[in-house]
User: What shape does this take?
Amino acid sequence: MPDRRTERHEQTREEILTAAWGLARGQGVTGWTLREVAQAVGMRAPSLYVYFASKDAIYDAMFAQGYRELAARLAAMPELDDPVDRLRAGARMFLDFVVEDIARHQLLFLPVVPGFEPSSGSYAVAEQVLEELRSVLLEAGIDGQSSLDLYTALISGLATQQVSNEPGGTRWIGLVDQALDMYLASELPASDARHR
Amino acid sequence: MPDRRTERHEQTREEILTAAWGLARGQGVTGWTLREVAQAVGMRAPSLYVYFASKDAIYDAMFAQGYRELAARLAAMPELDDPVDRLRAGARMFLDFVVEDIARHQLLFLPVVPGFEPSSGSYAVAEQVLEELRSVLLEAGIDGQSSLDLYTALISGLATQQVSNEPGGTRWIGLVDQALDMYLASELPASDARHR
DNA sequence: CGGTGATCCTAACATCGTTCGGAAAACCTC
DNA sequence: GAGGTTTTCCGAACGATGTTAGGATCACCG
Assistant: This one.
């Protein structure tokens, strides 16, 4: 029975998160203030504590939201027959997702918020999504811890270089096909890793 | 004419930086306070402003110090005849340097300090070191912007994954040879990229 | 020895996240 | 609808932060 009050409560939470995202995008992940968020939603800072236990709790909700969005993108991907095609499409999707919102990338994948560590609940969302990405690799015949780790290093390396050194550009993420060719030629069991 | 006073001044600056590094290593790059640093060197916080214009100026000096240390490691490397051997040794040296001090890695290579951007002087030091690393690649016959970018993404990806997900371990940096084999097989003109 | 600049301090400011206590509003029960 | 309860929201304020102001004290130079 969804209470009328709890419904409105949840609605206000979303409103706060939206305002926080907007400020984070404009002024950096850590460049916003509780008083600013409060003003954006027509409140004073202390009132935010009705909806979130702390600023870190807001970060935590944003963190979970970010990974849930990534999960949605993953679920919305076209079902390709060739597992290698799926792998390539997954990598491109991930890189698009990353460069689309620098603040989100930093919050989700880099330790930029001083004291923040995701709660176990939010961390579980992240783990699950990353696990799904890994399963795409497995289906392509890539097996073994070291091959998986090499893949994550390669793709996340492209992403981090892109947003750190040329935000908004494509200098690194444009190398995704070249990088995958390289990776697949080395890690794929014995078939071809034809381009495109 | 090195004044006696300016000499002592420089000495105190070093003392402050050493204290800041110690606190940064123990409590995170941004997990220290001017009052803490001051106490560590036997002062009160405002006195630090005699030696640094702001906290960001301390970060800036640490940034330059970090890159100067990296430059020293680069200069101290044994002179290997084979440029590919030099490349491998350089990558290993870099990864060792990175995992050795997480706080330094974050300050030098990740945008973790909220408002901080290196001054032009400190940035020049960084540019020069990275340029030297690039020249090692060129000597190995690796040419072209995209090849260079792919290399930086790969190596920095290994480093970032290591310190972000398993600080103190070797799960990712242990893959450096495998990664270089993969990279060289794909990017090296036409010779062999024999392991070890 | 007198003077000048560097050094270091206490006090205080603005801003931050956060807590407290109470007023207003929304809701549920009778 | 009235009464009571819970949620919402606020002003005031606390401790901590980086930083500034103003004044002592000290080191050095002539």
Remarks:
- Chain B has a mean pLDDT of 93.
